[in-house]
Amino acid sequence: MFDKVYDVIVVGGGHAGSEAAAAAANMGSATLLITMNLQNIAQMSCNPAMGGIAKGQILREIDALGGYSGIVSDTSAIQFKMLNKSKGPAMWSPRVQSDRMRFSEDWRLMLERTPNLDFYQDMVSGLLVENEQVVGVKTSLGLEVRTKTVVLTNGTFLNGLIHIGDKSFGGGRAGERAATGITEQLVDLGFESGRMKTGTPPRVDGRSLDYSKMVVQPGDEVPEKFSYSDVTKPLTHQRDCHMSYTSPLVHDLLREGFDRSPMFNGRIKSTGPRYCPSIEDKINRFASKDRHQIFVEPEGWNTIEVYVNGFSTSLPEDVQFKALRSVEGFENVKFFRPGYAIEYDYFPPTQLKHTLETKLINGLYFAGQINGTTGYEEAASQGLMAGINAALQVQERDEFTLKRNEAYIGVLIDDLITKGTEEPYRMFTSRAEYRTLLRQDNADLRLTPKGYELGLASEKRLRRIEEKHSKSDAFVEFFKQTSVQADDINPILSDNDSALVNQSGKLFKIFARPNISMDDVRKLESVESYIQEHNLDKETIEQAEIQVKYSGYIDKEKNNADKLNRLEDLKIPAGFDYSKLKSMSIEARQKLEKIQPRTISQASRISGVTPSDVSVLLVYMGR
Q1: What is the pLDDT of residue 564?
Q2: CA dihedral (68, 71, 74, 77) positive or negative
Q3: Which end of the chain has fewer CB atoms < 10 Å from its terminal CB, N or C?
Q4: Are 81 and 95 in contact (CB under 8 A)?
Q5: 299: which residues sit within 8 A by CB, 6+ positions away?
Q6: Given its phi and psi angles, is residue 147 left (phi above 0), alpha (psi -120 to 50 degrees) or beta?
Q7: Rounded distance, CA 349 to CA 416, Å?
Q8: Nearest Cα to 295, choosing from 204, 208, 427, 199?
Q9: pLDDT tens digits for range 177-187
Q10: Can you list the positions of beta strands (E) in 187-316?
Q11: What DSSP element (H or E) covers 80?
Q12: Angle at which helices 443-454 and 55-65 cross, to 10°
């Protein structure tokens, strides 16, 4: 049936698998996407939204490199918000509320339009491995398909087990069977595996809710969009979300079901996401809080189905129903389906290289929740990187990785393979030590040239960001070179309660003041004339403003990054024998031997490796 050898086979059609398949195919590799249900491509298994704190930055980076997630997020959006606008630009994070059905459909159609990409619906039950090299996959129907590389993106399907109260049954998500066979084979091949847990809230009938008792959560007045490309447009109208709260009564009703909760009666033993706990976990851990937020999110433009964000639970259905009916606005709620928890297999990511290729089997890549992460965006970024590197390996080109000062994606992957994770990993801005450099507004400037070199970003997009870069730099230089008279600027300073000046000075110094905005300086004829004369768009103007106001912070982080990169350039020979380093702690030797860091910088980030251990390593290497 399959009479050709593929370059790349991607197993699983979720967010990681979809990005991996698109990347490999767009780079010219003959690619096959095998998934258990082709109707559920890039399914939003949990909340119908993309982006958010740090996740929005990742999505912008995927788009800048030439991935599809940003475009699909725009075409299926029903609401857009830029979060954290009251803070500095390093914290700004875009988020969209999505039409769940349209999101999956748009992904499917984009993949179908992608050249070099074939599809097949079946469950992959095992790998074909010869001499520590993956050479194909086996399916549940008994087919064997040959390939040069494999990307595993199994999500929550590996031996997935769903829990609702005292009921448990196999499944990768509600209504879909679990995947079996792969974990057992990988363990036989020498891989270490573990179990993790995640959960999801009930979905309800929006017609049964009383929105008048809730707080309206509208989108931005002037919505933006995710993709830097010109194939999408910002929303012209949006759907509102709403917010309600739990209460002591709701908490008491939930506690009544704790003895039947798989979380508390010992049936669930795996670790769940720390930063997205179930409602029963929240009221147990934060017993002093008498209420928690509930976000009421529509699942699309036209559907009546509603996602109850903040009420993730695996309690029995009757307990869920009774408690939710005591939340304001939910008094007459009707359930579409109850919430549930799911346990699944994962493989500690310290078993991977920076390319996401496994250390044990050549040509085998892991991406997404199989690596212990949580979230669509984290999964999609790994899929993109795994798909890129699988294609590069087949084409005998140099591998592609991102450093911690280049992208949130670089932080994510370095954290995973260097530190590992024992609980579902979620990205936060605080994980990125160079977050002032890694802003959502400049992801295109940072990464589109790299995407173009890979063959993923078009020349048109490259030219566009080159124009943005040159125009914003020129605008910053304009502020540095242009003087303003005291009589012209003092009225503006006075209106903003800013100290007046008694002589002329450079605009840059005035504009750098924290309480002086672009709107303020645009009141000066020289500034507005420059903008009109050079036809500057909103993105370019915003970029220049950030460069002026945060130049000190940006320069400091660039200097720190340069120091880090000097350590990144100090390579550790492959297969280095750490047992020779007797003056190093036993823990450090064991960790270094297991993870096999490629550089001194990576070695320094391994948990248990101290600065003195790094010094020993440097001395031994003659540095």
Answers
A1: 74
A2: negative
A3: N
A4: yes
A5: 48, 99, 100, 101, 203, 305, 306, 307
A6: beta
A7: 6
A8: 204
A9: 988 899 999 99
A10: 194-200, 203-205, 215-217, 241-245, 293-298, 305-309
A11: strand 77-83
A12: 40
pLDDT digits (tens, 9 = 90+) for 223-241: 999 999 999 999 999 999 9
Pairing mode of beta strands 31-35, 117-121? parallel
Q: Is 422 exposed, middle or buried (0-12, 13-18, 19+ CB in 10 A)?
A: exposed
Name the one residue in this structure whose structure tokens are 């996740």. 55
The helix or strand, by DSSP H or E, that contains position 483, with its residue range, turns out to be strand 483-484
- Which tokens sit at 239? 């759907």
Helix residue ranges, H only, 256-368:
279-285, 317-324
Angstrom distances, CA of residue 246 to CA of 135, 214, 290, 382 = 53, 12, 8, 36
Q: Are strands 194-200 and 77-83 parallel, antiparallel or unpaired?
A: unpaired
- 551: number of CA atoms within 13 Å, CB side? 15
Cα gap 75→178, rounded to integer Å: 31
* Pair of tokens at residue 116: 């070099």
Say if strands 6-11 and 144-152 run parallel, antiparallel, or are unpaired: parallel
Helix (H, G, I), strand (E, B) or coil at 608: coil
Residue 472 CB: number of other CB atoms within 10 A?
22
Token digits for 14? Answer: 């979720």
Cα–Cα distance, 304 to 333 (Å, whole number): 12
In the beta sheet, which residues pair with residue 354? none
CB atoms within 10 A of CB 6: 23
In one letter, which amino acid is 174?
A: A
3-state secondary structure of 121: strand
- Rounded to the nearest 10 degrees, the angle between the axes of helix 376-394 and helix 55-65 is 30
* CA atoms within 13 Å, Cβ hemisphere of 249: 9
Give tens-digit pLDDT for 246-280.
Answer: 999 999 999 998 888 887 777 777 777 776 788 98
Which residues of the chain fall short of a pLDDT of 50? none
* The residue to which tokens 């969009």 are assigned: 225
Position of tokens 């929740």?
369
Q: What's the chain's Rg over C-alpha atoms?
A: 26
Question: Which residue do the tokens 């490199």 mark?
Answer: 65
Q: What is the pLDDT of residue 173?
A: 87
First to last CA, the chain: 57
Helices 55-65 and 408-419 cross at an angle (nearest 10°) of: 110
pLDDT, position 271: 75
Strand pairing partners for 571?
Answer: 599
Nearest in space to 5 (alpha carbons), one of 150, 131, 139, 112: 150
CB of 57 closer than 8 Å to CB of 223: no
The encoded tokens of residue 32 equal 């096959």
Residue 491 CB-density burial (10 A; 0-12 exposed, 13-18 middle, 19+ buried): exposed
What are all long-range contacts of 395-399, with beta carbons under 8 Å and residues at least 24 apart? 395/27, 395/28, 395/29, 399/354, 399/355
Give the Cα separation of 273 and 86 in Å (integer).
Answer: 27
The H helix count followed by the E strand count for the chain is 21, 22
